[in-house]
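Note to self: keep these together.
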Amino acid sequence: MWEAIALMIPYAIAYSMPLMITALGGLYSERAGVVNIGLEGLMVIGSFAGAFTIQQVHPGFVEQFAKTAEGAAAATALAILIGIVVSIASGALFSLLHAFASVSLNADQIISGTAINMIAGALTLFLARNITGSGNIRVQGLPRFDVPILSHIPVIGKLFFSNTYMTTWIILIIVVLSSLLLYKTSFGLRLRSCGENPHATDAAGINVRRIRYGAVLISGALAGLGGCTILVTYSGEFTGSVAGLGFLALASLIFGQWKPLGVVGATLFFGFASTVANVSQIVPAFAAIPSIVFKVFPYVITLVALVIFSKSSAAPRAIGQPFDQGKR
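Structure:
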């Protein structure tokens, strides 16, 4: 059984990374007081933008640089890197719709997020079908690699530093930097104050609307990165959906009590549980247990946790509340 778990950990980590970065994006938005259930749609936008960009630039890079095997690998890596940058920018730009509706128009944030999910799915499928005729866009994915030196550490090296993706380390770096940004800088203090007491923040001379706009933009950028991460790691294909991972990221955000470290723990938990569910029927240690048990287990635990910790929830006090300047 332990051998099976050891084999699954690298895959569970890879599956957790898109969840982690998307949930972190939701944390920025909701800490500033804006509910963002449009994470699913923003992930779809990021996945489509990344797939389209990679499909367009990869052949030209291969033709120009692929004189050797190393050149071909470098051309693929460069195309993927450009795709990731475009997906981040696309997620941020698309999230402006949610920011405009929620912050400028004081629209219902749940309805606005739902509209983002509906528009993103329909728009990207329409574009993909017109581009490919089928709605699916296949791309070259990132290769796995072993981290030098660290992968040779007994036990730990094989579990956490072998068969990793470049995006895993990019996302972990972003998580660490975000934790410092939110809790060790004036920007982080202002952002969190907008989600706790926006009127007091406004009285202190801080532009609440601007902070909320920035938070939603960051949320969209990170969700776009999450969608592209799925594409260039274990998926390899845009299909018009991210299989509900945006909503799972929201559950991870709530389960993690709107804190970066809590989000990391929750997404790793969900990632491992989902990986076990996907491979349970081919792993002898889990074959006797119906796969549906593993699939519903994370959600059941989340509901139980919400019931137990509902009174001590760390949700921002002004989350979901429109801000009218001058009114209290």
